[in-house]
Amino acid sequence: MSFLRRHKPLRRYTPLRRKTPLRKVSARQKTILELDMLAKAVVIERDGKRCLRCGATDNLHSSHIFPKGKYPKLRFNIDNLKILCFDCHIGWWHQHPEEAGDWIQTAIPKERYDRLLKWVIYVDHSILDLKLIEEELQQLLKYYKQYGKTEGN
User: Fold this and answer.
1) Average pLDDT over residues 4-16
2) Which partner for 62 in 16, 40, 76, 96 could form a disulfide, CB atoms 3.0-4.6 Å apart?
3) Helices (DSSP H) in 53-149: which residue ranges?
């Protein structure tokens, strides 16, 4: 019996164990990812759960009209988001930006595009208030789920 006490229990070898640890994500980064998903849900409801270009209902992506890297303040702006299917988003929007830029001006209402242009011109260097953005997105999601797509959006 003393033999059993001296030895450590056998450990199972797991071949799927990661060699490098996962990168730790800060609480702010987690919040931003959650807000991205919430903004996508709002835009899907607003656009009627269809690709804005071809009308497909499967594999929908939220896509920014003005890039979120160049315009970080527009990342969660619902006017700057549109819904495209995977093929239209990756295979067309990113492959033909000039044609896509011309198309988007006719695909969305002029008032919405004009609001976006004002935001692009306006330079704001303040830090994003993520709690406020989350509240606004939650309210918009409730609204679009209740009333559906409205004219002018």
Assistant:
1) 55
2) 40
3) 86-88, 97-107, 110-121, 130-147
